[in-house]
Amino acid sequence: MKLFALMLCCFVAASAMAVDKKTTALLKQVKKAAGIEVLYQSSYKGNPRGQMLMKVMGTEVALQSVRPEGEAEEEGALRTASYQDWSALTAGKMECVSKRLATLPNGRVINTVNPFKVGEGYVKVLDDDEVLGLPCHVWRFNVNSNTIDVWWTEAVVRPAADGEQSYCGTPQILNNCAPKGLVLKVVRNGDMVQEATAITPMKQAESLFPASWGEEMEAYMYQYECNHCYDINVRVFDQQAVKFSGDKLADPKTLKDGEMYRCGGGTIILKKVKLPDNARDRDIFATLTQYSVGDAYDRTGSVFVIPTGKKQSFLDAMHDLNSVPAFRSGDVDYHGLVSTPGYDVPVELMRFFTGFGVRQFNHNRVPGQTWVDSVTYKMNVTPLVDYLEGEVWIGAYIGNWDANGHKISLTLTYYPGDEDDPRGVRHCEPLFNTVNYLEQDGQPYPIFMGQDDLVSTFHLDKPVKKACLYYLTTGHGGWGGGDEFNQKINTISLDGQKVIDFIPWRDDCMTYRNNSPCSGNFSNGLSSSDLSRSNWCPGTVTNPEYIFLGDLSAGDHTIKVHIPQGAPEGGSNSYWCLSGTLVYFE
Question: What digits encode the pLDDT tens for the residues 310-337?
Answer without folding.
Answer: 999 999 999 999 999 999 999 999 999 9
